[in-house]
Write a structure and sequence with these properties.
Elements (H helix, E strand, L loop, with lengths): L1 H9 L4 E6 L2 E5 H11 L4 E4 L5 E8 L3 H10 L4 E6 L12 E7 L18 E7 L2 E8 L4 E8 H11 L3 E5 L3 H8 L5 E4 L6 H12 L13 H16 L12 E2 L7 E2 L1 H6 L13 H5 L5 H12 L5 H16 L1 H11 L5 H10 L4 H24 L2 H9 L4 H10 L20 H11 L1 H16 L5 E5 L3 E7 L11 E5 L3 E5 L1 H33 L2 H27 L5 E3 L4 E6 L4 H4 L9 E5 L6 E5 L6 H16 L8 E5 L3 E5 L12 H14 L5 E6 L7 H17 L6 E5 L8 H4 L3 E11 L2 E10 L7 H7 L4 H21 L10 E3 L2 E3 L7 H11 L8 H16 L2
Parallel strand pairs: 1-5, 7-10, 9-12, 10-11, 13-23, 18-22, 21-25, 21-26, 23-24, 24-25
Antiparallel strand pairs: 1-2, 2-4, 3-4, 5-6, 7-8, 8-9, 14-15, 15-17, 16-17, 19-20, 19-22, 26-27, 28-29
Helix pairs in contact: 6-7, 10-20, 11-20, 12-14, 13-20, 14-15, 14-16, 16-19, 17-19, 26-27
């Protein structure tokens, strides 16, 4: 326990898994936490006189089952192993931390999700700007950037790190800026200094400066990057040769999508349980690298036409050559997680089975390379030229590793026969020992003429020859007598002693020799980390483009024209997610949308609830985004002028935990949009201002639309869906605002939603009709219609500017006419109340007055 407490003191904030024999044990508070998370038994054991310590453990071979549960519960886990063989020491076995696993630092397959990256992030604050770095140790991707808090928030949202490192004391500042949804770990302040970071990065990359990575000007980004490498040292992850470069996230290359937009367009996840995201629809990838890359592409759409067209050309090529598409698909299926396997090589955690998978992947790359080069499509040819089949290492794996090698190295049977003469000899001894002993026995029978001679084994003196007393005079002089029995004598020979040593040590030597040969192969594989990482990236790229082609074919998408114009012209566009969720046989009602900077910059969309206004807004943004990631789009034709920012203000909800109402959240998001408008922005407003009173809402909405229209530099293309029919008046005053509505058809008392966008404003919202569809009690629906008619007739009489004073309220079974002043009795009651001096009324006079009013009403 003294040894345990010494090791625990080095990592007090981590759960310590302490190896004792065949078990990993936890003690004290760690045991209490582990037993709750893992569902294992908590026991107590004596620790000196009058003391007990809590204890919970599990078998060492179950580590892969229990470790992920601890990490997913947000725990840091220190793994303490026995550093020497207990057989070779008479003292306490030497132990030490071999790995510190945290949510952001893990190479364990059972912890990682193969469809997404597992990023560790570090953030360095300097006033209103931040430096940030992202590292996925399981793939070797290392990225950095710096910018405003707003930009960093967008990156955090898009990369979704599993753990964030901040300077000690900065947790509160981080949570105020980015929320409390991240797992945070604080590092000492000296780690976040320029000198410490620079030295750590230069030491790792073995360079004199960072100019070769193009990040030397990102001072805060470098500090964050250095902090990540310091953290890897702290968590005992020192074998990181697969982290070969540090890349800059180039903000100017990608469309800006803030976290509200990613959330409300449901790009990666859904707002409602059981929903479908855009990623779900587009992801038909077959390799983990493709899955992770597609996720990144969706939240980082491109702003440059050339790379977009390169992607489109490949998708179109696959579209036109289905045979090649299927052939590539078949080969990609064999590749597996090449990126994470080669990273395991670097950290020394690769298993024999994974080395075999590496060989299979490299074999599959050869026909992929040939297909790409033979295609004559320029982008595919470039990919084909860069793919490296790594023939030498592939052949070496083929030659040295058994095809049915086990997952664990210590199970044996990893290395093929013929690789090492000593290993073959040891295997022959270990596995054909009986035959060899029979050969010796037969030979000695012939040499000595003792027919009953036999060779046996016991634990006292190993292998021996037993001779019955009747033949003991035939025993050769060089045999050594070891034991006398009643009817026989036992002897040993020099040959048997040598053989015994060989056979008893053979199995241990076999495992040790296999481990040495396997590790030599892994060391050789390390030289191939950079080319195999390039291969993994290229394979991911092919996989994403193949996925686009599959989805386009399946869902009848077309190739959009992407250019630098200021026009978005979508003919018969469809929502890519909603169209997949319609009942069989029900067609999706497609719509045209046209936006430009000269004639139709802002479209005001009115129309009833449930008619499809929100779907129309979202589908316009999704079609634009899909076009800019290189995908085909759900439309009959589409011309997309590149946008540089997509903003959405759709369906806010309360943020009660920080004291913000729905309306406050809505105004925050709207302010963010208006402060960041650019000439090439696409803005979507859905029901802006509905969280406050009607007149406030109309006023704010009007002012915002007017601001966007009159902005001197940024004529942002805008779709504005609203229930405020008064905003239709704006078309008359502002030349680039056009009114459209989502049409409906009234048949008797019923309403049919046509879901078609047509020019002109709409007069009705049909909210009562939707209430009826939702199953509202009939009496409420009927009463709502009566109140609506009364309000409309009053508004026609008095105009919108005057508030409504007179509403008849009626409930089932009885009627109370309130403020219906054409009733003479109520007029009399009003006059009585009006003429009463309330301030000078005694309680008795008040009761009498009430009794009088009651008599007037009841007539009694």
């Amino acid at each position: 326990m003294k040894q345990y407490f010494e090791i625990k003191a080095k990592h007090p904030d981590a759960i310590l898994l302490f190896r004792v024999g065949d078990f990993y044990e936890t003690f004290s508070e760690d045991a209490i936490a582990a037993s709750e998370i893992l569902g294992i038994t908590l026991t107590r054991r004596a620790n000196g006189s009058a003391q007990f310590v809590e204890l919970a453990g599990f078998p060492h071979h179950a580590l892969d089952t229990y470790l992920p549960k601890l990490v997913r519960a947000g725990k840091r886990v220190a793994i303490c192993d026995q550093l020497e063989d207990p057989k070779l020491t008479k003292k306490l076995v030497k132990r030490g931390i071999t790995e510190l696993v945290t949510p952001g630092v893990s190479t364990n397959d059972t912890i990682l999700n193969h469809k997404e990256n597992n990023f560790l992030t570090a953030i360095h604050f300097v006033k209103d700007t931040c430096g940030i770095a992202f590292l996925d140790i399981s793939t070797g991707e290392f990225l950095t950037a710096e910018g405003t808090v707003d930009y960093i928030d967008k990156l955090l949202n898009n990369f979704s790190p599993k753990e964030v490192l901040v300077e000690r004391g900065n947790r509160k500042q981080f949570e105020e800026a980015f929320g409390s949804r991240f797992f945070i770990f604080e590092l000492e302040d000296w780690v976040f200094t320029s000198d410490a970071a620079h030295d750590r990065l230069l030491k790792h990359f073995e360079t004199k400066n960072l100019k070769g990575f193009g990040v030397q000007h990102l001072k805060m980004g470098i500090i964050a990057s250095g902090a990540i490498l310091h953290y890897l040292d702290l968590t005992q992850h020192t074998q990181i040769s697969h982290i070969t470069s540090l890349s800059r996230i180039e903000e100017d290359r990608y469309v800006r999508l803030d976290k509200f937009t990613v959330h409300s367009l449901e790009l990666l996840g859904t707002m409602n349980e059981g929903g479908t995201s855009l990623l779900n629809v587009l992801d038909k990838t077959v390799s983990p690298m493709g899955s992770r890359m597609l996720r990144r592409w969706i939240v980082f759409p491109l702003k440059d036409c050339k790379p977009i067209e390169d992607r489109q050309n490949v998708v179109e090529f696959f579209f036109r050559h289905p045979d090649l598409k299927e052939e590539l698909d078949a080969h990609l299926n064999q590749i597996g997680d090449l990126e994470r396997i080669i990273s395991k090589v670097a950290v020394g955690r690769v298993s024999p089975r994974e080395v075999l998978q590496l060989k299979t992947a490299l074999q599959a790359i050869e026909p992929i390379k040939e297909c790409c080069i033979a295609s004559e499509e320029p982008s595919l040819c470039r990919i084909g030229d860069q793919l490296n089949v790594c023939m030498l290492i592939r052949e070496r794996i083929e030659k040295e590793i058994n095809n049915d090698a086990p997952t664990l190295l210590n199970r044996g049977g990893v290395i093929r026969e013929g690789v090492d003469a000593e290993l073959d000899e040891l295997r022959k001894i270990a596995y054909s020992g009986k035959d060899y002993l029979l050969q010796i026995q037969q030979r000695e029978i012939e040499n000595t003429g003792i027919p009953s001679l036999k060779i046996a084994f016991n634990n006292v003196f190993g292998y021996y020859i037993e001779v019955r007393n009747t033949h003991k005079d035939k025993v050769p002089a060089d045999w050594i007598r070891k034991q006398t029995l009643v009817n026989a004598e036992r002897y040993i020979t020099q040959e048997l002693k040598e053989y015994e040593e060989k056979i008893l040590g053979a199995e241990e030597k076999i495992l040790s020799l296999e481990a040495k040969l396997f590790n030599d192969l892994v060391m050789c594989l390390m030289d191939y980390i950079p080319p195999i990482q390039v291969n993994a990236n290229l394979i991911g790229r092919i996989d994403c483009l193949l996925s686009f082609a599959k989805v386009a074919q399946l869902n009848k998408y077309i190739r959009p024209v992407v250019n630098d114009s200021d026009v978005i012209d979508i003919k018969a566009g469809r929502h890519p997610v909603i169209e997949k969720q319609l009942p069989p046989g029900e067609p999706y009602i497609a719509n045209d949308v046209y936006l430009d900077d000269e004639k139709q910059q802002i479209i005001m969309i009115t129309g009833p609830n449930m008619a499809g206004k929100s779907a129309l807004l979202r589908q316009t943004a999704l079609i634009t985004l899909m076009a800019q990631i290189g995908s085909f789009v759900p439309a009959e034709s589409a011309q997309i002028g590149i946008v540089d920012k997509i903003f959405t203000r759709v369906g806010a909800s309360d943020n009660i935990s920080v004291g913000e109402s729905t309306f406050m959240v809505e105004m925050n998001e709207a302010a963010d949009i208006l402060n960041n408008l650019s000439p090439k922005s696409l803005v979507l407003f859905d029901e802006l201002g509905r969280g406050t009173s009607t007149y406030d809402g109309i006023s704010i909405a009007w002012a915002i639309v007017e601001y966007i229209h009159e902005h001197p530099k940024a004529r942002a293309k805008t779709l504005f869906a609203t229930h405020y029919h008064e905003l239709n008046e704006m078309e008359r005053s502002f030349k680039r605002i056009k009114n459209y509505n989502v049409s409906v058809k009234e048949v008797g008392n019923k309403v049919m939603f046509l879901r078609k966008l047509v020019p002109g404003g709409s007069e009705h919202s049909f909210g009562i009709h939707v209430a009826k569809m939702a199953g509202m009690p009939q009496s409420i629906v009927k009463r709502s219609n009566e109140i609506l008619k009364q309000l409309e007739s009053e508004n026609r009489k008095e105009g919108m500017a005057r508030p409504v004073k007179e509403i008849t309220t009626q409930r089932e079974g009885y009627q109370l006419s309130f403020f219906q002043l054409d009733d003479p009795i109520l007029s009399q009651v009003r006059d009585e109340i009006k003429n009463t001096d309330v301030n000078n009324l005694t309680p008795l006079e008040a009761l009498n007055k009430l009794s009088e009013i009651k008599r007037i009403i009841t007539g009694k």
